[in-house]
Amino acid sequence: MTPQLDYPAIHAIFSRLREAEAEPQGELDHTNAFTLLVAVALSAQATDKGVNRATRDLFPIADTPEKMLALGEEGLIEHIKTIGLFRNKAKNVIKLCQRLIDVYGGEVPSSRAALVSLPGVGRKTANVVLNMWFRLPAQAVDTHIFRLGNRSGICPGKDEAAVERAIEDNIPAEFQQHAHHWMILHGRYICVARKPKCGICPIRDWCLYEEKT
DNA sequence: ATCCCGAGGG
DNA sequence: CCCTCTGGAT
Predict the structure, then answer these.
(1) Which run of H or of E encompasses A48?
(2) By CB distance 3.0 to 4.6 Å, which of A138, A201, A204, A208 could disulfide with A153?
(3) Which positions bind [4Fe-4S] cluster (predicted)?
(4) In this predicted model, what pLDDT tens digit does every residue of A89-145 receive, in sequence order?
(5) Would you identify the CATH topology of the domain A33-132?
(6) Statement: residue A213 has pLDDT above 80
(7) pTM above 0.90?
(8) Cα separation of A209 and A152, whole Å?
(9) C1'-nearest nucleotide to the CA of A181
């Protein structure tokens, strides 16, 4: 497995990423905690662009659990059927809304345990909401961060849990809050899955990935 | 380990 | 055609 990069390399990498984008934002459209939670749940194995296209017409008429329930599973499917895994997602979102109302007073809970108890919400989705909305030090490991972390040596690990630990243990405190989006954006646009764009990569000097050409 | 599952890119 | 996309439940 790729070795863990040392402190100077990690510091240099995130300094460079911060230089390019001081305040990295998520790219999932949302208007409140509820629509953020739903958008993240819908984004599983789907592009944010595809999720935004579907939620553009959905969220204006269903930005609360009550309104989403009124839409119903079939009504929801009409909005999200262009997104992969839409049947499971529709079923989960409806059940999630009912549980938010029954157990959490219609509000999105701010603890990981409560979030993970919601249908269709796993550790990754919970960590995104904790990080983006509640500004807590939670590190979500998605496909991009897993790939980038292991290729580069920023946060290598055999599974998501190991990568999450590598982030917490090796990324300096000053970068922890924004590390998630810096790595997402870099993985999405530069260190892409198929053919990483090493030629224009701003952190190439410290990366351990050997381009096989 | 397997299933879910459409859109977009190469 | 094949692979990938901010995964989760069984």
Answers:
(1) helix A48-58
(2) A208
(3) 191, 198, 201, 207
(4) 999 999 999 999 999 999 999 999 999 999 999 999 999 999 999 999 999 999 999
(5) Endonuclease III; domain 1 (1.10.340)
(6) no
(7) yes
(8) 5
(9) C6
| Helix A65-80 with A33-42: angle, nearest 10 deg | 30
Question: CA of A193 and C1' of B1: distance in angstroms?
Answer: 23
Question: CA(A81)–C1'(B10) in Å?
Answer: 25
Distance A145 CA to C1 C1' (A): 28
Active site residues of A: 124, 142
CATH of domain A7-24+138-206: 1.10.1670.10
* Strand B–CB A190 distance below 7 A: no
Q: Is A191 annotated as a binding residue?
A: yes
Give which of A46, A41, A185 is closest to A122, Cα–Cα.
A41
Which positions on strand C lie below 7 Å from a protein C-beta?
A: 3-9
Query: Strand B: which residues 107-166 of A lie within 7 A (CB)?
Result: none
What are the pLDDT digits (tens) for A162-185?
999 999 999 999 999 999 999 999
Q: Is A97 annotated as a binding residue?
A: no
Percent of chain A, pLDDT > 90? 97
Question: Quick one: pLDDT at residue A210?
Answer: 81
Among A147, A169, A137, smallest CA distance to A6 is for A169
Nucleotide minimizing C1' to CA distance for residue A192: C4
- Selection from A61, A63, A66 nearest residue A106 by Cα: A66
